[in-house]
Amino acid sequence: MPFTLTPTHPDNPRIQNLTDRLRHYLHGELAAYESELGIQQESRLTRAMLEPVWRRSRELGFYGVHLPPEHGGQGLTYTELAALKEEVGASNRVLATSVLGDMGGPLRAGPILEHATPYQLEKYLLPVIRGERACCFSLTEENAGSDVRALRTTAVPDGDGWRLTGHKVFSSAGPFADFSVLIARMGGTEEESYSAFLVDLDAAGCTVEDGEVPMSGQHMESDIVLDDCYVGPEQLLGKVGDGLRIGLGRVTVNRLLHCPTILGQARRAIELTLDFATTRQVNGAPLSQLQSIQHKLADMATAYYAARSMTYDALTALDHGAEVRTEAFMCKLFVAENAFRIADEAVQIHGKAGLTRGSEIEWLFRRLRMFRVLTGSSEIQKNGIARTLLSNTASAHPGRRTSPV
Prior knowledge:
Blueprint: H1 13-37, H2 47-59, H3 78-91, H4 106-109, H5 118-129, E1 135-138, E2 154-158, E3 161-172, E4 179-186, E5 194-200, E6 206-210, E7 221-231, E8 236-237, H6 243-249, H7 251-279, E9 281-282, E10 285-286, H8 291-319, H9 325-350, H10 352-355, H11 360-370, H12 378-396
């Protein structure tokens, strides 16, 4: 794809139109709404602040735009959705994650539609798509992050249903969600088995607590504490034992679809840096006239182009039905590491202005540093890549001794 900091889509009129309208909304109406309410990046968001954005975004055709037409969307490909997610990231609007439905909306609920019963669709998922309800996803526990089999939240049989007990952490969108897609270990059996449940967060025995505040300062995480919380058979998502398949089955696509948002934020860092370098005067000339600064800008733009190209290449393969698990590992690793390098150089070029708490560059630096850990650290991505390489080598050379990671 040709290099540009402001992508155009001349070969796809639908996405060009959506992109133009999305930019107009993000930088116009949504920016004005945030200003009116005094919302900053570290503001504690409330349901009352978010619901108008859900409704308005749905009116404009953005909320759930990726869904099939029968659910009110336009059936976007992954590549088309990524183009919109990149614009969301590049806008750096506080409420931008509510526009397409990332934060508790259709983008979070969409992957589980295929597992839902008619009852679950009607009570839980369709209201999310309409912007009437919100959901969170609860898999991680204090000592069970990358090692998901260390989960200790347990579902013990009780008649036709189960009693849940455990403590989930880092449930994004938990502070304003109505229910959680929650993965639990099945009790009462010697076999290791995990299931997924739709848990109402106002149910008896379920408590939503403030989660830890990440270094970005955003208040969007919750702990979900379960103490003998009953869930009925109608709340089982999929079949007993399908929990990890449902929970982890969405991870590859989600890992890949996080990349365009991060690329958008890296793009924003480059744009801010270009503006600063061309307007900041040093010894009577723009900072951008210094060759050392030009080299940094060149490196930032090259890293962005490389990361963006490989991400969209993997997304195109996914659209064509390819298995892209290894490519998703690679993209997440490369995008995370290079987006952070771009942010680091942006701070360096801004100097004192880039170190000031509350400046946009300073916040982007913190946010992009987090992505090297979120959705699997860079080391976890390397493990996945190496495992595939070693496995393929062992298959190609059955007589050779190799030790998969």
